Amino acid sequence: MAAVRHHVTIKGVKDGLVFLMNEHCEFNALLEELETKLSKTHHKLLSGPLVHVHVKFGKRKVKEADKDKVLELIRRQGNLMVKTVEFEPAELPDRNRLLTLRGMIRSGQTIEETGSVLFLGDINPGGTLRATGDIYVLGALRGTAHAGSDGDETAVIAASYMQPTQLRIAEVVSRPPDEWGVTDTYMEFAYVKDGRMEIDKMSQLHRIRPKNPF
């Protein structure tokens, strides 16, 4: 029987408690488990005299508002005082690894790769291409493309013909294509700015990538 993988692990240390946050699970699932442990399963352990708490997020990229939600839940427990909040430095995306793929991604097919991907062909509706780095499609992108799948919001998605079912960079999901405001047939790319997906002509990529990413 497989062991249960916890989203939040609470350990006792010499000067208090360490809250280890799973860096791979969905944030809402982490928040839900934290609230359950604080209010139910670990309530007796966490009640009593003042206890210092060290919160460790690992390599998870956490928005300031989400970090505040976690700390507020902990502080709501009257005897818990957050002493430190730690993040491990995230590994830089390996954009030096550019994988070239050819063919067609049909409905129901999903291709996942590490690094950046140059795809020579079409991605049909219902097909998905996912990469931890950038995605460049020399063809029609009508399906789903997910760049920066490990949480890298600096990744981009580009296509010769951009009419996707969905674009996703890290956890940021695109607006519907009819809201992009770009109607020309030039090669376009998607990127994240201030937490929002933006679309621009490929000729403007140098504005956010002043140096050769490869």
UniProtKB/TrEMBL annotation:
Residues 8-84 form the Septum site-determining protein MinC N-terminal domain. Gene3D superfamilies: 2.160.20.70, 3.30.160.540. SUPFAM superfamilies: Cell-division inhibitor MinC, C-terminal domain. Residues 102-199 form the Septum formation inhibitor MinC C-terminal domain. InterPro entries: CAP/MinC_C, MinC, MinC_C_sf, MinC_N_1, Septum_form_inhib_MinC_C. Keywords: Cell cycle, Cell division, Septation. The keyword Aminoacyl-tRNA synthetase does not apply. It holds the Pfam family MinC_N_1. It comes from the Bacteria. Cell division inhibitor that blocks the formation of polar Z ring septums. Rapidly oscillates between the poles of the cell to destabilize FtsZ filaments that have formed before they mature into polar Z rings. Prevents FtsZ polymerization. Interacts with MinD and FtsZ. Belongs to the MinC family. This is Probable septum site-determining protein MinC.
